[in-house]
């Protein structure tokens, strides 16, 4: 190019020299069983009644989870009640056996039996409370 000559630049030359690529990534995220309305609308445009079917599916899932929670709660209550009944029965037999052994004239054996029974009961209550606290902490972590 000559030093004093002006060169004419056309729009085509500018576009050719300044081409740059741009990539745009779009990410959409939602939580829960029901997508946002715009996604439901998109499903409806592809499959007729898709939004209604998705909502029905979410309602059925929620009902199932509620039923399972109720079943689990009832089973836990039943297990706790049976555990208390069996624990009381075993403690009653242990203490009754201790009294019977004392009446038979063996006070040391009676003391040993009653001591083991009482330590067993205290141990059950202590470990039961520890397990309950551990279960509660585990459930709280799962919720988070």
Element string (H = helix, E = strand): HHHH
Derived from helix and strand composition plus strand pairing, the structural class reads: mainly alpha
Mean pLDDT: 80
Helix content: over 70%
What's the count of strands? 0
Q: How large, in whole angstroms, is the Cα Rg? A: 38 Å
Low-confidence stretches: none
Distance between the termini: 70 Å
Query: Which range does the strand content fall in?
Result: under 5%
List the total number of helices: 4
Oligomeric state as shown = single chain
Describe the 3D structure:
This protein has 144 residues and is an all-alpha fold. It is built from four helices and no strands. Helix 3 packs antiparallel against helix 4.
Topology (SSEs and partners):
Elements: H1 11-17, H2 37-46, H3 50-103, H4 107-143
Helix pairs in contact: 3-4
Q: Descriptors for this entry?
A:
single chain, 144 residues, mainly alpha, 4 helices
Concise structural overview:
This protein has 144 residues and is an all-alpha fold.
